[in-house]
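Protocol step 4 of 6: structure prediction from sequence.
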Amino acid sequence: MNWLQKKITGMTASGQLDDAREAMRRENYQAAIDIATKAQQVFKSIEDDRGEVRALCIIAGSHLALNALDKAEVHFESAQVLCEKASKDNPHSCDLESIDVAMGLGDVRRLTGKDEEAEKLYRQALTSMESIGVHDSSLPESARATNGLGVLMMQQQKHDEAEKFFERAFAAIEYPPSGDQHLYALSTLVATNYAELLRKLNKNEDAEDIENHVKDLTEANPKNQPY
């Protein structure tokens, strides 16, 4: 396959990733897995490591949403290896993908009780964002890391730190992009956790405001809209 054929093939696979992301936005996770798996195989055939990483992140993230933690871990770890390889060949080529991988593995580690590893991965993701100048407002998915850290700090009774992380997560994802059911779910999770902490701190009026926001999110979620 010559370079032009590889380029055209890669563009086709990138289009498949767009379809997979749309399936994720609609919380059709199995479809996202199926589509992204096909794209991954194409990227692998043309030795496009970064493309394969992007596909693996979608596959892993979808498995995570389905609570298939073992499968999510395998695919995130595969993405991590490829991302490190791509970065050696072309520094900074995989910066954004490495953030996604760190947050995803952080979620897996936290949900499987490996709190120290989870905290390290979440902080790694935030440090990477800062180093390449990515702000929460342009990457609302960053709330996965700040929410995860908030949960971990709350479990350790470090309520002041937890509040700072939840506040940051809430600011990043308070108003999800219209039509994105996946981010509505993340926003609802963040707000619910934030309200729980505020109740623990006896900040009941603030907690009530956040709880009302959760109700608004539930009503606004495209998944719950009549068609």
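Step 5 (inspection) to follow. The CA atoms of residues 144 and 161 lie 16 Å apart.
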